[in-house]
Amino acid sequence: MAVKDKDRNVIAQNKRASHDYFIEETYEAGMVLKGTEIKSMRAGRMNLKDSFARISNGEMYLHNAHISEYEQGNRYNHEPTRARKLLLHKKQINEMIGLTQQKGYSIVPLKVYIKNGFAKVLIGVAKGKKNFDKRETLKRQDAKRDIDRALRERQKG
Fold first, then answer.
1. CATH number at residue 43
2. CB 3.0 to 4.6 Å from 87: which of 25, 30, 31, 122, for a disulfide?
């Protein structure tokens, strides 16, 4: 089921994004959905693995985001991996076009959540990490985990 995060119901997170990319800037966008898609999302049946956003004809679309079919949807059900339009201001789209024309930048979805009854997606303009960057990040996380563990043990004893 969806997890509470302040005033948002987080439905899906892209945990690989922070591992594979340096997130430079984030934007919140609305999603254009069909009725069975939002019902399936509210049930927590969404996956952002391998999804990406692309700008075409001045509009942004979310590709490869998998929303499972709704069980009671019968013939009105949706296609699970169809391209979904994202709602952003023209100025924001133009900023992203400028950023993504630089080499190595792409647009990745980070999180999908329900905010005030509407489905929102947090997208980030990201630069790809090299293998040594990924290893460095893992080393930093391990060191932080060890420090936190030592501090907890010290406070107990």
1. 2.40.280.10
2. 30
Looking at this protein, which amino acid is placed at residue 84? R
Instruction: Give dist(CA 70, CA 36) in Å, integer.
Output: 6
- Segment 11-27, tens digit of pLDDT: 888 888 877 888 888 99
* Alpha carbon of residue 75 to chain centroid: 29
Handedness of CA 143, 148, 151, 157 (dihedral sign): negative
Judged by DSSP in three states, 31 sits in strand
Q: What is the pLDDT of residues 74-106, one digit of tens each?
A: 777 777 788 889 999 999 998 888 888 887 788
**How many structural domains is the chain composed of?**
1
In sequence order, which ranges of the chain are alpha helices (DSSP H)? 15-20, 35-42, 90-100, 131-156
Is the pTM above the cut of 0.85? no
